[in-house]
Amino acid sequence: MSRIAYVNGRYVPHREAVVHIEDRGYQFADGVYEVFAVHGGKLIGEQGHLDRLGHSLGELRIDWPLGRRALMVCVEEVRRRNHVRDGLIYLQVTRGVAPRDHAFPAEADSALVITAKSMKPMDKEALCKGVEVLTIPDIRWQRCDIKSVALLPNILGKQQAKDAGAFEAWQVDADGMVTEGTSTNAWIVTQDGELVTRDISTSILNGITRLAILEAAAEAQVNVSERAFSVDEALSAREAFISSSTSHVKAVTRINGQSVGNGHAGELTTRVLDLYVDYIEGHGGPQVTDSWN
Ligand code: PDD
To answer: What are the strands, taking DSSP E only, across 47-130?
Structure first.
């Protein structure tokens, strides 16, 4: 089955999907993106992704390529044409095509690309198997709240983790506090049973999975604290996990070669995974509201 991509108003075979060499995304990384999880044919956290896309576009003064409702029609159409029941949708908006000049072009329509990919359905057992993370210095810019396509530090960090046989790298700020993974948010469970993830600021991306977990945990009256935690606190934690639209809730059982807790997925991690699955199965459906343009 051939994959279909959406490129600036056209649905085209994936292998023929191309953008202009002077697209500012290509030349300057002048663009933003979103990754939506698809679970059982439904898009997860649609509203949250669109709100975050609006934040990223607004901060960079890039125009919406389409209204929200029209955008979601295209997203759903790409999902449908690619027969994705479980997997992800990648959406990228750049400032568009213009002769190379650092300053914004006077006139350029923002460019939109959407692709879809099928993946194996979420497998709780695999998510609980446990992965290793490595801690590395956070060398990113000061606006990590913007989901920019400029991902060089993240790519280098992920490769460093991979080279060390780890799954993810947790980036650490100048104060020795963990910010987040290269493509995931970071969580620990303290020895007192408190679930901790970094509070929202320009130092991290406010993950849609993170938000879903916080909401599901609050509903289930789990004791959660949104605050920074140090590498030492993580090393002495009872449990740890990462979250993202692609990793869902994935247990972390080793940090820098050292076991976390008893070296197995923790009780609260497993519970949070169950709560997250219930949450997305209950709340994750299309949420196109009338207020959208
Ligand atoms: N990454 N932090 C960073 C730096 C990320 O890149 C991501 C997502 C997250 C988690 O966000 P969410 O829960 O909305 O997926 C946190 C995506 C999946 C990616 O770059 O592929």
So the answer is: 87-94, 111-118
The Å distance, Cα 106 to ligand 1 centre, comes to 32
pLDDT at 235 over 60: yes
Query: So what's the pLDDT on residue 21?
Result: 97
Task: Report residue 38 as tokens.
Answer: 């698809």
Task: Kindly list the protein residues whose Cβ atom lies closer than 6 A to any atom of ligand 1.
Answer: 35, 180, 183-185, 205, 207-210, 243-246
24 with 106, same domain: the answer is yes
Best residue for ligand 1 mutational test, from 55, 154, 209, 245 (most atoms within 8 Å of Cβ): 245
Q: Tell whether 12 and 143 lie within a shared domain.
A: no
| Per-residue pLDDT tens digits for 76-100 | 999 999 999 999 999 999 999 999 9
Count of domains forming the chain:
2
What pLDDT shows up at residue 2?
87
pTM listed for this prediction:
0.96
User: Does 224 fall in a domain?
Assistant: yes
Is residue 94 within 8 A of residue 130, CB to CB? The reply is no
Q: What are phi and psi of 235, to 5 degrees?
A: -65, -30
Pair 278, 133 in one domain: yes
Tell me 15's DSSP state: G
